[in-house]
From TrEMBL, chain A:
Keywords attached to this entry: Signal
Example of a GO biological process term: peptide transport
Transmembrane segments: none
Residues in the signal sequence: 1-26
Protein name: ABC transporter substrate-binding protein
Keyword Signal: yes
UniProt-listed SUPFAM superfamilies: Periplasmic binding protein-like II (SSF53850)
GO cellular component: ATP-binding cassette (ABC) transporter complex; periplasmic space
GO molecular function, one term: peptide transmembrane transporter activity
PANTHER family: ABC TRANSPORTER SUBSTRATE-BINDING PROTEIN, PERIPLASMIC BINDING COMPONENT OF ABC TRANSPORTER
Alphabetical list of InterPro entries matching this protein: Peptide/Ni-bd, SBP_5, SBP_5_dom
UniProtKB/TrEMBL annotation, chain B:
Localization, UniProt: Cell membrane
Keywords, sorted A to Z: Cell membrane, Membrane, Transmembrane, Transmembrane helix, Transport
Coarse class of the protein's main subcellular location: membrane
Keyword Hydrolase found: no
Protein name: ABC transporter permease
TrEMBL record, chain C:
Organism: Streptomyces swartbergensis
Primary localization: membrane
Record localization: Cell membrane
GO biological process, one term: peptide transport
Family, similarity comment: Belongs to the ABC transporter superfamily.
Any one GO cellular component localisation term in the record: plasma membrane
ABC transporter domain boundaries: 20-270
Residues spanning the membrane: none
Protein name: Peptide ABC transporter ATP-binding protein
GO molecular function: ATP binding; ATP hydrolysis activity
NCBIfam families reported in the protein's UniProt record: oligo_HPY
Parts forming coiled coils: none
Membrane disposition: Peripheral membrane protein
Keywords: ATP-binding, Cell membrane, Membrane, Nucleotide-binding, Transport
Amino acid sequence: MTRSKRRSRTVALTASAVMIALGATACGGSSNNSGSGAPSKGGTLTILDDADFNHIDPQRTYTTEGSSMDYELVRTLTGWDEAGSEPKLVGDLATDTGTPSKGATVWTFHLRHGVKWQDGSEVTAQDVKYGVERAFSPDINGGPPYASQWLAGGDSYKGPYQGKQLPSIQTPDKYTLVFHLNQPVADFNETTAMTGWSAVPKAHDTGATYDTHVWSDGPYMIKSYTKNKELVLVRNKNWSQSTDPIRQQNLDEIDAKFGQDQAAIDQQIKSDGGSAQTSITQTPIAGSDLTTMAGDPSLKSRYYKIPAPGINYMAINMNRVKDIKVRQAIEYAVDKTTVRGAFGGSAYGNYATTMLAPGIDGHKDFNLYSSNPAGDLTKAKALMKQAGNPKSTMSLAVENIPTQEHFADAVKTALAKIGITVNITPIDKNNYFSTVDNVKNQYDLTWGDWIADWPNASTVLPTLFDGRQIKKLPQSNNDLSYLNDPKVNAQIDKIGKMTDIKQRNAAYGELDEQILKDAAVVPLMYMNFSEVSGSKVGGVIDDSIMAEPSLVHAYIKQ
Amino acid sequence: MFRYLIRRLLAAAVIMLVITTITFFIFFALPSDPALLACGKTCSPSRLAEIKHSLGLDQSSLTQYWEFLKGLVAGRDYGDQSVRIHCGAPCLGVSFQTDTPVLTTLLQDFPADLSLGLGAAVAFLILGVGLGTVAAVRRGRAADKAAVGLALFGVSVQIYFIGLLLLYLFVDKFQILPTSGYTSITEDPAGWFKGLILPWATLVIVYLAMYTRLTRSSMLEVFAEDYMRTARAKGLPAATVVLKHGLRAAITPIITIFGMDVGSLIGGSAVITESVFGINGIGKLAVDSVQNSDLPVILGTTLFAATFVVLANVVVDLVYGLVDPRVRLA
Amino acid sequence: MSVQTSPQPADVTPAPAPFLDVRDLKVRFPTEDGLVKSVDGVSFTLEKGSTLGIVGESGSGKSVTSLALLGLHKGTRAQVSGEIWLEGKELVALPEADMRELRGRTVSMIFQDPLSALHPFFTVGAQIAEAYRVHHKVSKKEARDRAVEMLKRVGIPQPERRVRDYPHQFSGGMRQRAMIAMSLVCDPALLIADEPTTALDVTVQAQILDLIRDLQEEFGSAVVIITHDLGVVSDIADDILVMYGGRRIEYGTTRDVLKQPQHPYTWGLLQSMPHLTGDVGERLNPIPGTPPSLINLPDGCSFHPRCAYKGWVPEGRCTVERPELRLVPGTGGHLAACHLTDEAKHEIRDGVRKGA
């Protein structure tokens, strides 16, 4: 999942200063956790976001906020039912989670009958095909790359707007879709839970401006959308509960308001007065706000700590830090307690020892380095000695925001103890990833974070460690470690072809361990995302796939 | 007078052109790449090239600049793929981010800035001039010290802090006012007013200081003028002496600064206030556009803000001509 | 002060109270450096229809005295004591509100430098009309007509048109005429003219002085002319009061003071006055030295540091003993404050004349 909106906030310090200065205490929600009890109908839920969604055109959405919003508006082929204790993949538009061919290169989905558009017409397989095809147009940019990567013939297809269709998506009848892939993809049906795999009616497609005209087949539809100001959703009368295994339609209206400062939003929801009682945030609480709010007992009933399928890490550039002893010494030397403190403390997440977070298929629990999160200086020093105590200076790229600069200081202090001088290179946060992802800009150490597109190692390890992308995607190389090991690359290909889930997961776990043996990266924290709502908001589900508060069951307590 | 105006406006147009040019080429000198941002993660070079083409970024910056200028005069048509967007003259371009003509967005956001800026300006002008006058009249006494102290407070606090504090007190804690934000005045005049009280108050607190001090010193200067003694010698009441004869003369230097402030406030300079109170105005738009490397919006907001500052300059000169009969506009 | 205050002939039957009677006026300004004694015990009288010239250098207290007559020190830090009787009313103790009623109506003032004394942002007509309206319940139109009438009266051509002009559009002489028009608009009983001609060139000066004299005859006002130039008052004033360092040093009828000046300072003033009839090449004799500090006046005669004749007084009395204001023998009311004996004065005056 894109990291573009997963930004820590710079202003939180000041905000807390206000709250602390005033001795602010919230009145506190009286009810218990909002998930319980029968939902009441009616009311307006307000979503407060500091900025508008980059996109909610389902084929362009690639942010967690935008996707979470889209799930109220559009239905995807498959989806995650998270009402239970574990997320469960179910058919959404499709009747089930799809049928792979032997070798998983052909996937077939059957659509439910009677799923209606907001104008009452039926959602067809052709609508889904058209929707998926849209993503190939350069006008419909910003979305995930999977369709063009995997659908056969996708590399030369330029979208449906010149009247051309993509032959690898077949619609033998109104309710059947067949996808022909150019490689085996065993978890393709998890990909199809992303918003891009949804239907768009050709007659209502407004192309590049579809963001504000998304045609609904979900429980809510757009009433009005003024970019950067407000999005208002109302009930879609043609949606029916009987065809939808995931969503409910409890609210009269969902009103997303954009543009208020995050600290002001936090302050409002925390105080829980007036309309704040029926509001919820989508941008995670960060920095010192996180520390104070996470520990506030009065917020407990409306505080959502959502474990994200994501990792906060520091990549070590293998091209530049060639001696494995030095890299291992860094692994031992980094003090994760001070690092986590910089990001907001224990509420931010648990210390990580692997690149695959718990909850991601393929996660294997292991720890190759210090058992103490504060590090092991003795080991680190010993490794440096073995390496011949090289005098070295290393650059560290971070975003130019206080949180990250504190993090950089923590690393600098830790590495100074083993004789490594760290030069911190702060980079404008808006251009951070476009800078460090460009192979022209390389650093010895690079901060990064990554959220899996679906909870599967296939959207983490290949993305972050397939060294072939360094050449192929010179401007958007995600392999910040510049690990380009033919054996790892071959292993990535091999696992991709595996169709046996258990075998596959185990192999990914091994791969994770292999990468850490190379000491290509220092995993720092498995991230949590924390959000708050007003006391009258009920039915919020911790969406650990999207790392957002899921609103599909949301209601207003009457 | 008319010829003067024409000349000033022509000069203003030249300034705007220069500002546009500088903004344009600074943007291309920066490392940000809007096509790469639009492309998203894992962007292949071929896809990047297509997006560059669809955004018009595959042309040389000079060509793009020329197209931009042509669009200003003649309008432009955008898009050859999914949708055609017509952007009528004066076309400031179409946002990379929202595919909306920039001018449309600017005009849509403008009422918020106008309400915020003008409302606050009227309030801090009246209050500042009032306080400054009281301070000058009661020079050295308690009222003077209180006014100067108050002004000092306003100048030393951060706008961000004041905004959050007011929000906390009036909206969150005591719930005297509704959650802030901008409501159109045509839609709901009462809501418009209530929503703007705190943003106005924030700007007033910050700007009041300068106007109080300025008025005070300007007033004291005027008090020493001979014509003030003449006014008293005529037997005019003290209030007439101060408010008519004194203020009329003392206000001229204030007009200059006031004009600049109003111009820049309306042009979107109250970014922090906009952000704290969730008023989506030009300032916020400008900041967001920089974050998104949205060149057309960056250009549009810069040009828009510059227009108001330059216009404010012209207006100030015209007002000067009205206020001070000795000033001849030529 | 026991000495007679009026220069008027004393043998006339006891007159009713004079129109203006200033008694022991003191004006002091507290400053960080000390108390500035701008006016220190000044007394004089003035009847309706007559003119008093107050003469002195800048800093002699003459302008401060005139402001006291208008009550313009009220509401400032200035400490005013003594008495100012005007038509039987005492002005020093008069409340500001009552004083304001008198300003512009009963007592009015022509300020020096009309360019700075007129408000640059209002038309001449508006400023005159305002002065009228503040004391008369009339419509704007009536006030405007009155302004035109006054402009005409002071000799401004095309008054209907010029009434709409701003002060900067007037010439220096016309501005002063306008200023006079403004001060006379309410027919004041007492007109104070503070250096009314200083800012003007010589020909215009004469015109303005003629104008003031004509208007005085017409309105029958009492006039106080304040000037540093004895020449200005020699034609127009009935009495002359010479001030130095905030005090009176010589006071008498114009004739007495000009013919028989008693004080070396007055001599100096007379010498520095260009005689219209005299030789063009005649050397002007400005008084050497600078005016005294009003915070620490010199002991004895405050003029002694600049006085060329203090040697004529034995035992350095001039530096230790302050000379009283004394009646000049053989005059009805000519007063002077100087230790020189009459004989010494005669000798010096003769010498000066010869030397000149």
